[in-house]
Design a protein that fits this description.
Length: 498
């Protein structure tokens, strides 16, 4: 679409406004049209610069003669609501831009109760926190964007965008594209020792939807669930929204403390864990803990939800196999995502579902979004099959390892042992804990004003006392930036200690 054809409101030119016409009314048609346009302009629904349909087109759409339309347009032009531009058509007058009426309808102004579901109120309030969207130094969930093979990616996007036909535009399998699921299946078997068949894989819009569908399939209101303490906040939101009773179970260097979980709540319905790289503290669940957890799940008849969000990146030790791969009683639901390994705005993740639950997952998905969007599944399948995916992982692993080492060295040099680092062996972030007396939220708020994005660790805790510290992402922070950002961090801590 050319810019000439685009209206100032961003809506394509010639979009028909809602103008009600009543042929039986005593008010003549041209007057009804005039009033309709005028009201739409004054309410702000038709903005300055918006192109109105030609009189012929509007007459045709409304099934009336062209005369009342030309009369109404003439009146609106005469009064300055419309302007005509030679060779382009008729537009809502741009001189009205300063006079836009602010009497917006549909604004809550009543004192009567506006009752919401209790369910929706269980989910923590959304907060527009500065560190959530800041892009750059220490931002969490940010890959090395400038290293992404955009050329190859764009070629694949262009190729698939040009394709057309029913398979491109029509409803598809609720599990997702078969080619894509086959590619993921083979990747997971090889790199994560996941036991799966393509028909057990469901493509979803990131881990978040995987968690939401899983909660709907497996959990009821009032169910007790184990959640790591500290944990990924958005896992907690899903479980709170499902009405579950959260049982925060401490984690240590071996992952979730299964014995503590059994003492606290032996009959929990499920355990939500990040065994490959605990979020946010970074430990890897030890083999004995894994067996203990699987054993508990079998005895308690509980489910284990394995969130394997960034296991591609391990630096000192070999990739470890998934918990799902050790499970002999089909009690583990495995969740993966492309958000870390590629980028988060893709919104593509997957669930490996125990075979007997696949039908239930499909039913729940049908009630949610029916099936996943087509385009990026196809792009990603080719991206994987052409070898770009594994090449990218290999390259990023080397790069992130360098950045991780630079960060660890800089922190040690700047702080000695004052700041403790956790989870340095894997992933794209480390957790840095502070000595007592500091408030991580206060420091993070000040840091954001300096374009330094520190995620406060304390927010990952469900219970007090929480540990104060920061989750420091280094995926998108190059070495020079790391040195500078660590100095900024030191300045902030010095200022906070006075
Ligand atoms: C623990 C954990 N799980 C999952 C994800 C990914 O979520 P999504 O796939 O919805 O982007 C993240 C963040 O990227 C995370 O930190």
């Amino acid at each position: 679409m050319t810019s000439k054809k685009r209206s100032a409101t961003g809506i394509s030119s010639g979009t028909l406004p809602v103008i009600a016409i009543d042929r039986r009314a005593t008010l003549p048609l041209h007057r009804q049209l005039y009033e309709g346009f005028r009201a739409a302009i004054l309410s702000g629904n038709l903005g300055p610069g918006h192109q109105v349909p030609s009189s012929r087109m509007l007459a045709m759409e409304l099934g009336i003669s062209r005369f009342p339309v030309t009369d109404a347009y003439a009146q609106l032009l005469a009064e300055g609501y419309f302007e005509s531009r030679a060779g382009s058509g008729t537009f809502v007058s741009s001189s009205l831009s300063m006079q836009r009426n602010s009497t917006k309808k549909n604004v809550f102004n009543s004192t009567s109760a506006r009752q919401l579901s209790k369910r929706s109120l269980l989910i923590p309030q959304y907060e527009n926190l500065p560190w959530r969207y800041g892009w750059g130094a220490f931002g969490v969930h940010q890959p090395a964007f400038d290293e992404f093979p955009f050329e190859a990616w764009s070629r694949l996007v262009a190729r698939h965008s040009r394709r057309h036909g029913p398979q491109v535009i029509h409803h598809t399998n609720p599990l997702g594209s078969e080619r894509f699921r086959a590619a993921i299946c083979s990747y997971l078997r090889i790199s994560r020792a996941v036991q799966c068949e393509p028909d057990q894989i469901m493509i979803v819009s990131g881990s978040q939807q995987a968690l939401e569908i899983t909660a709907r399939v497996l959990l009821d209101t009032g169910d007790a669930v184990w959640i790591e303490e500290p944990a990924y906040q958005l896992t907690r939101s899903v479980l709170l929204g499902a009405g579950c009773r959260l049982k925060p179970i401490p984690v240590d260097g071996d992952g979730i403390d299964v014995a503590a979980g059994i003492r606290r709540c032996p009959n929990a319905r499920a355990a939500f864990v990040t065994p490959s790289h605990q979020y946010p503290l970074g430990s890897t669940m030890s083999a004995s803990r894994r067996l203990q957890l699987l054993n508990w799940a079998e005895i308690a008849g509980a489910w284990i939800i394995e969130d394997d969000y960034d296991s591609e990146y391990r630096y000192e030790v070999m990739p470890i196999s998934s918990l799902q791969g050790l499970d002999s009683s089909a009690r583990v639901i495995y969740i993966g995502t492309f958000s870390k390994v590629l980028f988060a705005s893709l919104r593509i993740g997957y669930i490996v579902i125990p075979a007997d639950l696949v039908d239930r997952y499909i039913s729940v998905r049908m009630a949610m979004d029916i099936f996943p969007p087509y385009l990026y599944q196809e792009v990603l399948t080719d991206f994987m099959q052409c070898g770009h995916f594994t090449r990218h992982i290999r390259k990023m692993r080397a790069l992130y390892k360098e950045r991780r080492t630079a960060l660890v060295n800089s922190i040690h040099a700047a702080f000695g042992g004052t700041i403790e680092l956790h989870g340095v062996e894997a992933g794209m972030h480390v957790a840095a804990t502070l000595p007592s007396g500091f408030s991580d939220i206060q420091i993070a708020t000040k840091a954001a004003q300096r374009q330094l994005w520190l995620w406060p660790l304390s927010r990952c805790y469900a219970n007090e006392p929480s540990r104060q510290g920061f989750i420091l992402g280094y995926g998108n922070t190059c070495e020079e930036q790391i040195f500078h950002a660590v100095h900024q961090l030191r300045d902030l801590l010095v200022a906070a200690s006075h």
